[in-house]
Amino acid sequence: xxxxxxxxxxxxxxxxxxxxxxxxxxxxxxxxxxxxxxxxxxxxxxxxxxxxxxxxxxxxxxxxxxxxxxxxxxxxxxxxxxxxxxxxxxxxxxxxxxxxxxxxxxxxxxxxxxxxxxxxxxxxxxxxxxxxxxxxxxxxxxxxxxxxxxxxxxxxxxxxxxxxxxxxxxxxxxxxxxxxxxxxxxxxxxxxxxxxxxxxxxxxxxxxxxxxxxxxxxxxxxxxxxxxxxxxxxxxxxxxxxxxxxxxxxxxxxxxxxxxxxxxxxxxxxxxxxxxxxxxxxxxxxxxxxxxxxxxxxxxxxxxxxxxxxxxxxxxxxxxxxxxxxxxxxxxxxxxxxxxx
Length: 341
Hints:
Largest sheet: 10 strands, mixed
Number of domains: 2
CATH superfamily of the largest domain: Spore Coat Polysaccharide Biosynthesis Protein SpsA, Chain A
CATH class of the largest domain: Alpha Beta
Mean pLDDT: 90
């Protein structure tokens, strides 16, 4: 076994993969203590050829194209590290990444994962912006309040900034393969369930470029936007089921997942349609986050309102009316009657 595996997942990254690999190699950490594995998800460009230049320091695994989840599922059994650092093939590590995260694991043996700040790099302008937590901190899902903090902090566990213990990833493998991207979301939730330590220093670079899976022009490619949002919603659904299996409380699950899940679902339902049941479920998730201490009368009022509107109106009609109502200066349910305490 190695102390660490760097897992780079890639697909048609011939312009970027060499920088990703070199950033993993050029770390102030003993080469004998870590391996670098590239999982190529059926690239049709020169990506595999470029990766092979780094053999035997870098091990290449290849598979038919199937998306990010299938790549993780294929690669994980081949990894030999007790700790696994995740990196997309179009991103890269800062020089001190591996020593910093390994030091953090040593200092915090209870941590399921270590995250950190990162830089956003924009290819078109060459501009960079750093993002970092407000100081080093611990995040977990042990309470609703902790989960709210974790919801704000889980961006520092995205690909490139996320290093997890093998057992943390192992308990979510295999990941449902319909998650052709954002397949790291279940891994992030596993890390949060176990507890993660965040370093304030930016130690990786996330690249924005025209081929990013999330870089879609809604007007030019509406169908791709719809599929992307369905995949995001599926990632949240998978994560919710996993967190329940891990014993995370219902209110903590709502606090960490629903603030991102709700706007994603609303946008899809408003612009692309869906079922009335989806509308009702989405608004119930929103209500649970916004009013965790709602009074019984207000709960009854909301359930009746959502149920009546959702049974009559299509999702598109419902959210058109919802947006109109939100802009009107009409009387609302009195605040003291909305919340307990």
